[in-house]
Amino acid sequence: MSQPSDEAGSLAGQLLVATPRTGAFFARSIVLVLHHDEDGATGVTLNRPMEAGVSAVLPDWQPHVTPPGVLFQGGPVEVDSALGIVSVPGGQEAQTETLGISVLFGGLALVDLDTPPPVVVPEISGLRIFVGYAGWSAGQLEAELIEGAWYVVEREPRDPFHESGDLWRDVLMRQRNSLSLLATYTEHPEQN
């Protein structure tokens, strides 16, 4: 994954909030866009915790992950790989030269999970490990946005490390427009 594009229209650093039109895999998902340009987009689904603890695949990292200490299903692409997202102090001014850390945007970075944790851990304040990622080919995400499959909203710094509750609902509730009304959406209106 490369640095986000500086060109206008890039959604890197934004959240994609699944609408009822989104397919089953992404139902009620929140995706953090990591990279977006004319060649396509990549991101990770933030709210799909798995039952497997980090220790099942990366035992050295287990003591350092943000609770609940499990792997998260980042998306349907390359599910045999893991991706670490970390928070780095300093926000936009964070150093990009730290061994094992590649700054993305707004104090978020990718961590090289092959780097020994003691090298990286003093430089971070949050860590979540994702299995796979979400990916879109050139024009695919734009087409999905036109079809109404996603809402695009601003990310808050702790969203990638959300610990409790329903992130989909919480992200919608904090919107200062009509999107906040969708937080109570149910696929079973008869249960209201």
Describe the structure.
It is a single chain. The protein is mainly beta and 192 residues long. The chain has a domain at 15-84 and 130-191: VC0467-like (3-Layer(aba) Sandwich). It is built from 3 helices and 10 strands, in the order ββββββββαβαβα. Strands 1, 2, 3, 4, 5, 6, 7, 8, 9 and 10 form a 10-stranded mixed β-sheet that branches. The N and C termini lie far apart (43 Å). The model is unreliable at 1-6 (pLDDT under 50).
Quickly list its features.
single chain; mainly beta; VC0467-like; ten-stranded mixed β-sheet; 3 helices; 10% helix; globular; disordered N terminus; AlgH-like; YqgE/AlgH family protein
**CATH uppermost class of the domain at 15-84 and 130-191:** Alpha Beta
Termini gap: 43 Å
Average pLDDT confidence is 87
CATH topology of the domain at 15-84 and 130-191: VC0467-like
Would you kindly provide a brief summary of this structure?
The protein is mainly β. It has three helices and ten strands.
